[in-house]
């Protein structure tokens, strides 16, 4: 199990990249990542505890492992600073996302109301857990995005799971998450965007959103689905003319 003294902070990407990805959303960003070679960036399992939020931020990671009593006894309750799930929260900056590899466990509540209140108070954008939280009623009241597999009354190490390491590579929902990766989360779910690919994802997604707006307009008028979605070469000149008119306000 990692010593708290060995925990390192993450390198954060420029905030404007995260803000742009939050506006783009998971569906478009996932599609563009697939076309760029990242076939499946979705973290499966976690769903919004409350709907209506779209956020993106760098990942602070927490790895959990099966409990083994010789490595994890009662000392953490005598000294709370031994609780590694606290240490993933300590370096939180505004816009950060906490991502937890909870091994899909449905019995251990990784965080409760007080820990999540701290995260929200630090300006954290959200938490993603392929497992559970507790105190869900109070958690829903926080100004915080929360994506989890479920809820439980149990605390973090009450059953068979223990926090093991902070800001290391993890597998959340069977998807590799590197510390500092950009996590994008909304009502459709959660995806991972490698920082190096973020500028291209944003550029491609902006074009995608523009032609989709045109396609939506034409389809709402009864346009041919075979021509307008996806956009075909036969209507590209029409699209360009429409785009140019939007730019001039005509």
Q: Give the assembly state of these chains.
A: single chain
The stretches of 5 or more residues where confidence is low (pLDDT under 50) are none
Which class do the helix and strand fractions yield?
alpha/beta
What is the residue-averaged pLDDT?
93
Question: End-to-end distance, in Å?
Answer: 63 Å
Q: Helical element count?
A: 9
CATH domain topology of the largest domain: Glucose Oxidase, domain 1
- The percent range for helix content is 25-40%
Summarize the structure in short.
The protein has 250 residues and is an alpha/beta fold. 33% of the residues lie in helices and 22% in strands.
Describe the secondary-structure layout:
Layout: H1 15-24, H2 26-35, E1 47-48, E2 55-66, H3 75-78, H4 84-87, E3 97-101, H5 113-121, E4 126-133, H6 136-140, E5 145-151, E6 161-166, E7 170-172, E8 175-177, E9 182-186, E10 189-193, H7 198-220, H8 225-228, H9 236-248
Parallel strand pairs: 2-3, 3-4, 4-5
Antiparallel strand pairs: 1-5, 2-6, 2-9, 7-8, 9-10
Helix pairs in contact: 1-7, 2-7
């Amino acid at each position: 199990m990692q010593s708290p003294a060995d925990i390192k902070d993450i390198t954060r990407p420029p905030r404007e990249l995260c803000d742009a990805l939050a506006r783009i959303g998971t569906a478009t960003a996932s599609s563009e990542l697939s076309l760029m070679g990242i076939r499946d960036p979705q973290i499966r399992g976690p769903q919004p505890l409350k709907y209506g939020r779209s956020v993106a931020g760098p990942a602070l990671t927490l790895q959990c492992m099966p409990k083994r009593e010789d490595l994890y006894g009662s000392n953490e309750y005598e000294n709370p600073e031994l609780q590694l799930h606290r240490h993933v929260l300590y370096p939180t900056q505004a816009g950060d996302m906490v991502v937890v590899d909870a091994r899909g466990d449905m019995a251990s509540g990784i965080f409760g109301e007080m820990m999540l209140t701290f995260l929200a108070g630090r300006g954290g954008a959200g938490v993603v857990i392929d497992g559970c939280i507790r105190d869900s009623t109070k958690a829903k009241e926080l100004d915080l995005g929360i994506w989890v597999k479920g809820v439980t009354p149990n605390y973090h190490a009450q059953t068979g799971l223990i926090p093991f390491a902070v800001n290391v590579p993890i597998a959340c929902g069977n998807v590799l998450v590197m510390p500092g990766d950009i996590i994008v989360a909304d009502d459709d779910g959660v995806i991972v965007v490698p920082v190096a690919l973020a500028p291209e994802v944003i550029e491609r997604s902006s074009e995608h959103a523009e032609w989709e707006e045109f396609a939506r307009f034409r389809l709402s008028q009864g346009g041919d689905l075979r021509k307008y979605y996806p956009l075909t070469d036969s209507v590209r000149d029409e699209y360009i003319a429409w785009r140019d008119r939007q730019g001039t306000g005509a």
